[in-house]
Every structure is written in C-alpha cells, then in structure tokens.
Amino acid sequence: MSNKTAYVWGPISNFSGCLLYLLLENGWHLHIAGKSALQISLSPLDLVSTARHNIERAAGSADKLKHFHEHLLFLDSEEPQRGVTYDIVLFMGLPSNFDEPRVSRAPWAADELAKITGKLKGVPVIVISSLWGGIQNDGAVPEEIEFERRKPLSQFESVCQQYETRILKAISKQDCRWHLVRLPLILGSSLDGRSVSFTGLYKLLKELYQAKNRHGDDRDKSTIELSYNPDATFWMLPCDWAANLLLKLIEDTSRPVICNVVSTQATLNQEWLQELARALALKSVHASGKDNLSLPSTLRSMLADNIQVKTANLFEVLGRYQQAPMMLTRDYFANVLHYASQQNWGQSSSSKPESPFSPEKARTFFEKFLPAHLDRRMLKELEQFKGGLAFQIADQDDKQGPPSNHNDRNRPAESSLMSGDDDCRWLLSIQDGRAVTTPLDNETHKPQVSFLISAMSFSRLTSGTMLLEAALITRTLQVNGNPIQCLKACEFFRRFLGLHHFEPGLESIEKIPEEAGSS
C-alpha cells in the first residue's frame, strides 16, 4: 500500500465521497479543505462536519471511517497545511450532478485553484470537471485543450463552461503539471446502489418509481410515456466505477492530460431505459413528445441532447489498468432503486423517527459509551481540563427562554446545572490515565466547563442528526465556563460527536445530516 498525501479541495459529492474513501483504503493520507460554520464565503466547500458525515455515508458507516482516523485531517482553512509535502492536489470545485448543492458557486473556485498551485509549486493537480463543460458546436466533447464551445442549452451547462474556462485560464498562468478529468452524471454504487445524495438522474428514477406504484400490479397499463431522444446517449456512471478509474489515474505518473471518463459500453437511451423499466416491473418506457412527469428542465435537456464523447484516452487507460467495462443492467438499476427507496430518496423528514429521551439512554451514553470511545488524542485533550467537564440534561419540559439582560447571559446554564435530577448530571475526567464518568457533586467537583443539553436535542446530537453548531445557535446546548476553555471543550465534544454516533444497543450508526447542515 502507498503512503502518500493528497490535498483535497471541493464539496463532498456522490463521486468525491466514494473516491476519498477508496484513497483511504489504499493507504493515502487526506487533507480535506473545509470551512467554519461562522465563515461567510461564496466558496462551494462543505462545513468540516458535513464533509466528514458525507465521507462516512460513502463508506457505509462511521465505524468503517474510524479505522482511518489517523489518515484524515480536516482543515478549517482553505489553504494547504504548511510544512507538508503533498503528492497530488485533487481540485473538485464542481459537483458531478447538476442539482447538487453549491454547483452554482463552482465558477468562483478558479481563484482558489490559482492560490493553491501558487503555494504548492511542482505538485501535480487533477481538476475534476464535467462533460457538459466541453461540448463543441457539433455536439462532440473533445480531448483537446482549445476548441469553441457551443451555446449552453441549460443553466448547468453554462456553469460547467464557466468553471472549465476559468480553471484553464488560471492554470495557464501557473507553472504546474495539471490534468483535467471530465465526468458524466454519477449514480449509486454498482455493488449495492449506495449513494451519498439523490441528485441528477435520481429525479427521473423517483418519478418512474412513483408512476409504477400508481399502476400497481396491472402490467398491461404500466407503459410510461417519457419525452426523450431514443437515439441519443445519456452519459452516466456508477460512483465506484468512476472512482476506481480515477484512483488508477492518480497513482499513474504518466496519466493523460485530459480524460473524458465515460462507459466504454455506453447504451442508447432506449436501451438503458428499458433495463430500468424491467427493474421497476414496468411493461416499457415509451418515447413520447410529451409526458406528465415532473422533471427539472436541465434533466429534460440532457435526455434529448445527442452529444458524442471522444474516448481515445479512456480506452488506453482501461487497457493499461485492466478496468472491467460497466454495463447498466436491470440488476444494477434494481439495487439503485432499492437503496434510494430505503433512504426515502434523501428526504430526511420521513426518515427513521428519533427515539424519545430517557434517563437510562443518557446514563448509557455518558457512563459507558463516551469514556469507552475516547482515543489517545482525545484523552490528552481531556487532561487539559482541570476539574473535568460537566454534562447535564435539562428537563424535557424546560421552556426557559433567553436571559433577560446582559449580566444574566450565562446564568441559565449555571443555575440549571446546580439544580434538577442528579441522575442526569455527570462529570467526565481523567483518573490514572483513563476516562471516567461519575455523578456530578456540586460541593466537591469544580469542572472548568459545564454543558447543559436539552432533552429534546440530546438524542439528535448523539445520534448525529443535529450538528453541535446548530444546537449552540438555537441554545438547546449551552456552555458555561472560561471562554477560552469553552471553545476548546466545544471543539472536543464536536469532534467526538462527529466520530461516534450513539444508539442504545448499537455502538455506531450511519449519520444522515439535515439539509440545513450542508448549506
């Protein structure tokens, strides 16, 4: 296995999440740029916590990512870490699917690429772009650098063109080795249909899935009409297939300058749509000039657009790396549909209901789960808090509002901490080099920092469906103590909650962040 370090810039999407986890499995160290929750920026970067959650989802669970904790570093700054020798820069400012968050901000990323290459001179740069950023007037996507792009047919194509032209202009002024990879739309894994987000073609899959459910088991009536071009190709790939190919490109020093990553056995719309119909147990998907499906205008344009993609480099790369061809069959679509329906197509409002608060659950978390899951680094950090950290769960019916004046601003957390049910009050400290949780005693214990957590937010915080930053802003989590120590304690608790998701009877569960957490 290799032992190399990559600097990663860009939001974590279906493609990049799968790629980054694959890099970790192959021994790479990753330094991932993010931004602070309090940072006001047009950057398309994710919050650090959101970036971690999306990589966990690409991996399948937080437990799988936990094994690579030493290889992952999330940077609150957009700049590379000083003193580190990087082997590659992965610049992924443009998410692969047209309706993923922050796509519209991608053109602003060109300025950031110039800053990064200026600081990391001599480090190869791989820029991820889109097929829809390089379409010529004749409808072909070339592998040349200079050509005339056609007039955009959609807002997404316009964004892709702006991103790619500004990126190439920025790179031309820098002395660096660069490589441009153009991707199609990205779907779920070919292994189990797993996906980080349900964007792009998922809009069509969902519409056909719901239309099939309306028809029920009446196969004679289950012919769905769809407005599309039967003789055109809709360019898409499973996330793991595209990520595997890019991993091999990253580790190859003689990689091509420009590579259009598409399937070597791409099928026409009428062919893959019939495979999709078989997966849905539909009679057929019939080409029509008009349909009743609710689809985004960009997706409709793609279904009717007949673009051709030059793949000379791709065939060469596939032969060199023995990459197996990818066929979009009924079984593949069945896996994708099953996973998407199980996840309710990414709609968090209808996800698994949160378990209600109970003192027993809180005791299990603070007395067993929390001290048992602190790694060496976190144990050293805990030693810095002389007197330990105090935690209290507020009463479920506590509707205490904000303080009435400035002098009382910290008083609610302090007064609530000194009253109430002793069963929901704990002190986390270090004893003989081990983390120990004991019932909080106001007379003998003098914690440096005290956390007051509302019962309503406890389950959401510990299961990973609520960010610590959101709890602080809404004051469902309050912190009392020395301001500097409070900041350190919040970072300590935030990192623990990001690494470990708690449910009674389970050590860790997959986290699905709310939409607000990724905006």
Structure description:
Helix 4 runs parallel beside helix 5 (155-172). The protein is an alpha/beta fold. The protein is 36% helix and 15% strand. It has helices at residues 14-25, 48-59, 62-66, 109-119, 155-172, 202-215, 239-250, 269-279, 297-304, 312-321, 330-342, 359-372, 376-383, 411-417, 455-463, 468-473, 483-499, and strands at 5-9, 29-33, 72-75, 88-91, 125-130, 140-141, 178-183, 185-187, 223-226, 236-238, 258-260, 284-287, 308-309, 389-393, 425-431, 434-439, 449-453, 477-481. The protein is built from 17 helices and 18 strands.
List the main descriptive attributes of the protein structure presented here.
519 residues, alpha/beta, seven-stranded parallel β-sheet, five-stranded mixed β-sheet, 17 helices, disordered C terminus
Number of helices: 17
User: What topology, given as strand order, has the largest sheet?
Assistant: 3-2-1-4-5-7-11
**Which spans of ≥5 residues are poorly predicted at pLDDT below 50?**
396-422, 505-519
Specify Rg, calculated over alpha carbons. 25 Å
Helix/strand/pairing category: alpha/beta
User: Distance between the terminal alpha carbons, to the nearest Å?
Assistant: 36 Å
| Residues in helix, % | 25-40%
What percent strand?
A: 15-25%
User: How many DSSP-defined strands?
Assistant: 18
Largest sheet: 7 strands, parallel
Bulk shape: globular
- Average predicted local confidence, pLDDT: 84
